[in-house]
Structure formats: structure tokens, C-alpha cells
Amino acid sequence: MYYKSLTSKIICSLLVLFISGSTLSAQETTAEEATWIWYPGDFEVWLSNKMQVRRTEREAVFPPLWQYYSPYALVTFQTEVDIPEEDEVKIFSEGPFQLIVDGAQIHGQPKLITIPSGKHKISLKVYNQEVLPAIFIDGTYVNSNASWQVTNEDKLWIDEAGNAQQSGTPWVPVGSWNFNTPEEKPSEFRLATEPWNAKSTEKIEGGELVDFGKETFGYIQIHGLKGKGKLAMYYGESREEALDSAKCETLDHLSFDGKQAEIYTLEGSKAFRYVQVQADAGVKYDSISMLYEYLPLDYRGSFKSSDELLNQIWDVSAYTMHLTSREFFIDGIKRDRWVWSGDAYQSYLMNYYLFFDSPSVERTLLALRGKDPVTAHINTIMDYSLYWFVGIYDYYLYTGDTKFIQTFYPRMKSLMDFCLERRNDNGFLEPLEGDWVFIDWADGLPKTGETSFEQMLLARSLEAMAVSAEIAGQQDDFKKYQTLSEELKAKLFDVFWDEEQGVMKHQRVDGEMQDMVTRYANMFGIFFNYFDESQKQSVKDKVLLNDDILQITTPYMRFYELEALCAMGEQEFVLDEIRDYWGGMLDLGATSFWEKYDPNQSGEEHLEMYGRPYGKSLCHAWGASPIYLFGRYYLGVEPTAAGYETYTVKPNLGGLKWMEGKVPTPNGTVDLYCSTREINVKASEGEGTLIIESKSKPSTNVGEVKSLSKNKYQLTIKPNTQYSIKYKAL
User: By the 8 A CB rule, do 454 and 524 touch?
Assistant: First the structure.
């Protein structure tokens, strides 16, 4: 999260402009396999609608609290090809279509057509109101792939030259994912499953308690099911919840007529560790198992150290992250099972150090954004709209992908227009009717009026818009957003920075500054690099290390608090905090990390939240933040130019004897081992700069170690080269 400004030179060197209407040669056409394609963002909108309505509380549907959008029901796909010979092309479509080849309509709904050699223009207009319009075109030379274009404009017409024309909505690159056979229709997408057996069962009054050994997610299976009658399932992330049939949050009541299959799989997938089973005397079964449901992802990142507790924390963090990485990055697997922008933003960062799965980031960003017109903040939360912009900037920095920004820049701009229109006369955001200012779950945290935290997020969002506008080729917008961000930062410090106290104040209401200091804007100002060095040191001493300042009890904001301390070189202190906070959850038997942890609570208090005895999520995405902290601030790997064209490696043991791990990059990894005397590093791509703090000048087997300042040295890391450095830790 520590940002560095990308220079115009870097941006221009990576800018790949999409040129509409280009003709594909036969070589280019056959370079990509056929895949299902659709209007960009529509699959993600449709899938998120379908997924987020699955949340239930005691068998009642509990849908999201914000507006649903819909895919375009009618879209037009087009491509231009130049093929060396006749091509037989198979056509598959999700919805009826109109096919036009070289300006002439092909009658009927053909499943196979022959395209002669030479240059051709192909257009398909597809209708589907139930799911989303999509096509799969499969030929030797003519394939549906990322080179196609699409529009939602319904006024397509063919001019005398056979060219497809329209007014209004422009052609844009199609959307696609990994549906690479005709049978893998987007509308039939399912997560993967695999069978898991229970770890133990326990007879209880009237039934049994099944324990799967750890927090998990999937479909319950009943084996050897026979007879007629009723059977009830009571699920729990905790033993207490599963045994409390009157108050547990998820359950199933089933009725059988004797004709059911002996292996019966429940329809809805759920989160649980424990399941209480209660069956009528007329219903018999042999055992209970489950189909574990998951998104297949490779663990490309890793971390291991001389501290076994930290290793366990990393492992449980990775499992927590995987459980909450589903169709999208969601918040919790029991509650809410929704796509929240603030939660997702942290998941993006963890993802870059664990999976580096770019499609999951894209899907989540698109599901959150929805469609125009914008009538409310994302998730109805002011700060969550702003996290969305910052997430796009991070996505570009880590992946180097410009196509996403070029395609969806109009949606970025319309959302930013909405945010800017809601500023007050002072140029600040404050909540209007319908706005929710979240910041954090914290007792006694005021959120009315103008808060410094929201203005700081808006300033970063405007910087993200400036970078995105330049990538999209919108120079006027680039200048506009750059100016707005600079002006807002100046106002932010003029109004909220207290020079005498050396801190950022929290809130101004009706023009009157409130005498309150909180951690939020102060810690963000550190890793946003908005403070100078003296301001950072003042904030560190007077806010971050000050127990009198309102404490943070959620992993959500602990993430940022610990990041700010790491950015200030407090890695040893942070490791103690991680051992205490995340280790405290492990001491209480956590197998995944929670939505909130308060060490002052005890017993069943740890399960309570929102006024409900089991309202707290015991598997929450924001609880997995050690993944990011270990990769970014201990292994010390950070991209400094988009897509890891350049990057830094600043290992910091934080008091550990040794550590090792992998940090994924777009096409490889940075592999690192570090002890108090030796550093070994090898990277797959890009040019890295290894920063070493040592009592004397280090030696290396490859390259040249250069002095930066007293006890600080650097070494350039080239791809696919093993470096072994001897040094003396400070």
C-alpha cells in the first residue's frame, strides 16, 4: 500500500492502446483458442447477483442492501478477419442471434457456416433476458477470443460498403474468462468440489454432532439415507452455535418420502465446522460427509521463518484467504457472503502475495461497480466507493494490465463524477442522505461532518483517476484529476493538520474543528506517503504508539495500523503484535481468522456481534492480512513500476533468526532467503533493487554491491540469476 508516483515515462512505456476495427491476419486469428465472450462486466454483474442472494438466516433469504444491476439483454459482437483458406465455423450462443457476414444477413440460427478465404466482417447480435448474451465461435481461423469487439447499442446498421455502423455507445473489447469449450457455458459456472469426511462424530441428545475439524464451506452429504420423516441440520462455525438449534444462524429442515437417493446431497452450500443432525425415528442414515466447495487457485506465495507461531499464522491466513476467495473476493463465508468493497480491497493486496490471480480481482471490481447511472455509493458506503478507485490503481501497479483501465475508464469517470458532485462548499466529502460512512467498527467513533479520513481517501482516489486517465489517453482528464488531488491534499493539511500537536485531527462539524485524534487518517497518511519524515515520526509517537488514542479491535483496521508501523521500521514491534493478536485467536481454537477479536472478551462473548449470539464471522477475509504484511514488509518485495518491470526487495527480519518465501509476480516469483548473515535471492522477471542494511559492506557472488548511505547498500537483481550475499545484520 506504500505508493510511489508513476512517472509519465513509465506510464507511456507500458501503455498499450486498444485500436478498434483492426483486421486480424490468419496468424493472429489462430494464436488464441476459442472461448466464450460477452459484453465486458456483464458476466460479473450476473454472477454476483446470483451469488449474493444465496445468503440465508434461519432459512430466510437475506439479499444485499444495495442496488442490483443487470446484464445488457441485447448486444452485438463483431470481428474482421483475413483468412488464407475456406473455414468451417461452428456457432454456439447463449440466446437467439442475428448473423451478418460482409453486410448480408444469414437467415435462420445456423450451427455451422463456411467462411471463404479472404477478408471478412462478421457480426452477431445476440438476445438473452434470462442470463447474459454470449457466443462461442469455433473454426480453424475464425474463433471468438479477446480480439473481438462488442457494443450494447441496438441501432446497428450496415452501410453501403458493408461496414457495421452505430451511434452512441462505442465498440469495446469483449469480456471473457476461462470458458474454453462449447459445453462450458458462462451461465452454468460452478465452483469446484471435492469430497471431505468428517473428523469426528459425537452422540448428543436426540441426534449427533458432526465435526469437520476446521472451518469449511460446502454441501452436506447424507450417506445410506432411508425411510420417511423429517431431518434437521443446525450449522455452526463454533460448537456452541451448532448445538443451539434455537439461535444458530444457518439451518436446514428436510422432509423425506422414502424415495430419496441413498446418497443425498443438500442443495445449498454453507459455511460451518460443526453440524448438529436431528432425525425422526423413521429416518435412518449411515454417515455425514461433505463436498468441499472452492475456487481452484495455486498458492504461488509462501512464507516460513524461525518462529513456528508466525508460520502457523501465515498458514491459517492463507486458508482464510482461500475460503473467502470464491466467485469473488467476499467478506465472510457464513456472514455476509457478499462483495463488500472495503473487504475486497484488502483481499486484492493479500492476493498479490498469495495467489496473484488477476481474474479474481477484475471480477470483483466489476461486480462492485455495476452499471451506469450511478445513484449511490458502492455498497452505499462513502469510503467503499473510494477504496474501489485505489484498488484499480493497485491492480495496474502489480499487474501492468492497461486493458482493464482502457475498457472501464468510462465507469471510473462516472463514479468519480458522482463522488465529486457530493462534495460540500468546502470541497470536502461529508455524508448526505443515503450515505453510510463506515471507517471501522469502533465504539465511540464519530462519523458526522467532514472527517480527515474520507478526504484522504478521496485524494488518493483522484491520484488513481489521474493515472488511469493518462492510460486511457484522456489528457484533459489527467490534468483535471491531478489538479484536484493536489488542491485537496493542500486543503486536507490546512484544515486537519495540527502543527502544534503534530497530528492529523479527526473531524470538523459545521466549520468547527473537534478536539479528537484517531488513528485512521494518521496511519493512512504514512503509507500514502503524504507526511514528511518529521510528521511521520510525530504521528508514530503521538498516535500509533499512544495507548490513549481510541484502540482498534478489528483485523480490518489492524491491517493498516500494522502496515503504518512497518512503513516506519517497527517490524519487531509488529511481529509481537501479530503474535499477540492473531496468536490470541489461535489460542482460542481458531482455524480461520475472525471478523473481530477483542482479547478483553471471554467465552461465548467472542461469538457475539450485531446484537446476536452468533453474529460474528469466524472466517473473514480481512483477518488474513499477515499474508500481505509478511510479503510486503518482511520479505520486503514491492513493485515500483507497473507489472514488476522494476521492484525493490528490502528484507527485514524483525528479530527473526531467518525467514524464506516466495512473492508472486505476473509471470513468475521473487524467491528470498534471509538470515542474520546471508541473503539469497532469485527473480523470474523485471529488474529488482535489493536494499541491504549491514554493519559492513556485503559481498556477493554476482553483480556489484553499492553504498547508499551509512550501513545501507544496494544490489541490482537481474532475472533468472541466483544471488548469494554475505552481510552482517545491524
Answer: no
